Amino acid sequence: MSLAPRAVLVHRTTEDEELVARHGTHGQAAFFLASRGRDVEEVAERRRRTRRALAEVTAAVPLSWRQSLVERADLDRFLFAPEDVVVVVGQDGLVANVAKYLSDQPVIGIDTDPGRNPGVLVRHAPADAAALIPGALQGRAPTAGLTMVEAVADDTQRLLALNEVYLGAAGHRTARYRLGLEGDGGVVEAQASSGVLVGTGTGATGWIRSVWQERHASLRLPAPTEDRLLWFVREAWPSPATGTALVAGELTAAARLRLTVESERLVVFGDGMESDALDLTWGQTVEVGVCARRLRLVD
Predict the structure, then answer these.
(1) What domain of life is recorded for the organism (predicted)?
(2) Which H or E run includes 89?
(3) Which of 1, 170, 183, 223 is least enclosed, having the fewest CB within 10 Å?
(4) Cα–Cα distances in Å, from 256 out to 75, 259, 266, 268?
(5) Predicted TM-score (pTM) of this structure
(6) What are the start-end ranges of the H helices in the chain?
(7) What pLDDT was estimated at residue 260?
(8) 76-102: burial string, b at 16+ Cβ within 10 Å, e else
(9) What is the model's pLDDT at position 184?
């Protein structure tokens, strides 16, 4: 007996809810903001818009379907199924947060705050959900296959990301490692830096673009569906033992960037999810490149 389709609604705790959780009551949260020249109504209105959007999307799910509601903090503990249609209700970054946990399920991005969100990944209004949810399951809704990046360690640990992967020290310490390109004739450079970013065309609208602009890089930014990545070393430090020659480049579909740890601990995380990171120790190697899996985002 086959299971009914399931709509998985992904959301995150709002700023207003976080303030109340920290200060105990709405009144105390309002006092805290007022004492700093801010109005609690600003964040309260964003919470109301988010809740209205979530209620509208929930009501749009067909009655014969199953439903699950998942908060961002619980994504690493939630088991997605092949028959799921994933509906992200919130900001663009929330789509990136969920991408690494999926395997070809269609994703619908619902914008809860038009004008405040860029709408790169949350492309639809709550009113569109009634047509998009069944359409995504039946293949009637057009989708784009967005390129993802993966990091694979020598102990088989693996991490995926939609925007970018960061490799570096936890906190603000200097990361020490040896960096090279796979198949590049063995050219490797010892480096000390603030870490390495490897990003996709989707990430080219965020952190990677910021670094690209600061560097005035001549590298062409990839498109979201292009099998090409850009990588940048952040604040590489020249010394008798470390160099700054390999600080930026691109990776085609078959290329890999290889990093060997030369400090006590480095972390690898994707799309800002530091709580779900790979831990690497001295001597370990990690390779980063284009992932075979793509995110199926409903256009």
Answers:
(1) Bacteria
(2) strand 84-90
(3) 1
(4) 28, 10, 19, 15
(5) 0.87
(6) 15-23, 26-34, 40-60, 92-99, 129-138, 207-215
(7) 96
(8) eeeebeeebbbbbbbbbbbbbbbbbbb
(9) 63
Q: Taking phi first (over 0 means left), then psi (-120 to 50 degrees means alpha), and beta for anything else, what does residue 171 get?
A: left
Q: φ, ψ for residue 198 (rounded to 5)?
A: -130, 120
SS3 47: helix
| SS3 letters across 259-295 | EEECCCEEEEEECCCCCCCEEEECCCEEEEEEEEEEE
Q: Tokens 């070809």 correspond to what residue?
A: 104
* pLDDT tens profile 92-116: 999 999 999 999 999 999 999 888 8
- The residue whose two tokens read 């603000």 is 172
Q: Which of 94, 272, 146 is nearest to 197 (CA)?
A: 272
Contacts of residue 284, defined as CB under 8 A and 6 or more positions apart, other chains included, come to: 153, 154, 155, 260, 261
Q: Mind listing the pLDDT tens digit for each residue in 31-78?
A: 888 888 888 888 888 888 999 999 999 999 999 999 999 999 999 899
**Intervals of the chain under pLDDT 70:** 1, 183-186
Residue 185 has what pLDDT? 64
How far is 176 from 144, CA to CA, in rounded Å? 38
